[in-house]
What does this fold into?
Amino acid sequence: MNKDYFEQLLIKTDLSLPAPEREPERQYYFIKKLRGIYTELYAKKKRDLCYHVETYGCQMNAKDSEKLAGILSMIGFKPTDSEKNADFVIYNTCTVRENANLKVYGRVGYLGNLKKKNPDMMIALCGCMMQEEHVVKKIKESYGFVDLVFGTHNLYMFAELLYECMLRKDRKPLVRVIDSSDKIVEALPSEQKYGFKAGVNISFGCNNFCTYCIVPYVRGREKSRKPDEIVSEVAEMVDNGVKEVMLLGQNVNSYGKDFLKNKAAAERMNQAVDFPELLHMVSMIPGLMRIRFMTPHPKDLSDKLIEEIANNPKVCKHVHLPLQSGSTEILRKMNRHYTKEDYLNLVKKIKDRIPGVALTTDIIVGFPGETEEDFADTLDVVEKAGFASAYTFQYSKRAGTPAASYPGQVPEDVVSERFDRLLALIHDTSDKLAKKAAGSVSEVLVEEINAEKGTLTGRMNNNMLVHFEGDEKLLGELVNVKLIECKGFYYLGELI
Ligand code: SAH
Ligand code: SF4
Ligand code: F3S
It folds into this structure.
C-alpha cells in the first residue's frame, strides 16, 4: 500500500458520520479530523508544523517510530532533526536496561524547559517504558507538562489518542496505556527512514521469559502476522525501491507457532507457515535483493532454517545468535533452555553448512550468581565461536523480573572488571577474523554518504561496513568494493 492508497482511504472517510468501529478505518477517520484541525493551526502560524520522533530502543522500537512518523506525515506535519524546532516531540522509549530508562527522564526534563519557551509544543511519550506502572506514576507526578502517554499495545491508535488529547479540558497528561491486546492492526501508514532498506515486523511480543528480561512484560505474548500481509508489505516496499529487508521478531524461530495455540491467532493466520518457509516466500519477491532477520533464539534454531540460509542466495550470510552467557549453570538460571555445549554445537553446525557465515551475539556480564568460573566459560565460548562482533551488556536489574530477586547479585566493580576483559577478548577475536577478508571483493549496499570526508559507507552481505570513495548517486545501490585495510569493525575499500 502506497501513499496514494492511503489518501484514497482518507477521501472515502466521511466525517459527518460517527467514527467507524472497524480498524484501520477508525484511525483514518481521526487522521482526517486532525488534518482539519492542524490545517487551521498552520494557517494561523503561517509556517509548516514539524515533528521529531526519537527512538530509544531496538529495531522494533525503530519500526514503531516509523509508524508514528507515517501518521504524523499524513496529518500534515513535516519531520525535523531536533526537538528545538519541533511543534510535536515524541519519545519512543526502551526499558530493557536501567540506563536506557534514565536517559529518557533526563531528556524529558530538557523538553520541559523547551516547553516553557514554546507553550504550544506537544509532548508525547510512548514505547516500552510506558508499560510500567511506576514510570507512568512518576511522569504524572514530576513531568506534568507531558501531553500524551501511551503504550506498546495501542500504538496503532495514535491518531485517535492525539485527537482525544487535543480535546481535553485540562493540561494534565492524557494517559492511555493498556495491559495487553491480541489485535494486530494492518494497513496504517509508515514513513521509512531509508528508501532502500526497511524493517518488517513478522511477530510482536515474546513468550520466552528469560529471567533477566523485561520485554515479555512490556510487549506481551507472541503474536505472528499473517504471511500474506508480510509478503504484500515487502512487495510494496520493493516496488517503492527497497532492496533489503530485515524481518523483525523477538524470537523469529517461533514465528507462526501461536497459530496452533490460540483461536484469535488462528484466525489471523490463514496458512500455517513456519519461519524458514516465510523466509522462502519473501525471497520469491522479484526485485528484492537481500533479506536479513533478527533475532533467532539458539534453543530452537532448526536445521530447516540453516538449510534455507545456506541455499537461498537472497538470505544474508549473517546470523545474530545471542549467547547471553557461556556457563550452563547461568544459562539455566536465565531460563535459556540450552547448555554451553548445545550452543557450541549449533555454532559448528551453522559454520559447516554456511561457509563464510558471520556470527554475532549478545552477552550479559554479571548475571546474579555469576562466578569467576562461569565467566571463564563465557570467555571460552567467545574464543571458540569466533564472533564477528558482539553486543556486551552489564546485567541490569529490572523490577518485576525473576532475576531481580535472585541471590548473589554481583558487585559493580567485579562486573565492570569482567566486562573490560570480555571486551578486550572480543576485539581480539573479531579483529583477527576481519583481517582475513583483506584483499577480497565484496558486494555492498551503499547506506550512507559521509559528506565531510567525501566517502560512502556500504554494508556487506555479512553485515560488516566498508568506507570508500564514490559518487553520492550510488546511495541505495549494490556495488562491488575491494577490501583494502581492516580498521577493526570496519574496512577501508575501493570501488571496482
Ligand atoms: N529477543 C532478543 C533480544 C532482546 S533484548 C533475544 O532474545 O536475543 C536485547 C539484548 O539485551 C538481549 O539479548 C540481552 O543481551 C540484553 N538484555 C536484556 N535484558 C537485559 C538486562 N536485564 N540486563 C542486561 N542486558 C539485558
Ligand atoms: Fe527477552 Fe529472552 Fe524474549 Fe529475548 S527471548 S526478548 S531476551 S525474554
Ligand atoms: Fe527496548 Fe522494548 Fe526493544 S524494552 S529493546 S524497545 S522491545
About this structure: The longest strand covers residues 441-450. The longest helix spans residues 412-435. The chain is about 40% helix and 20% strand.
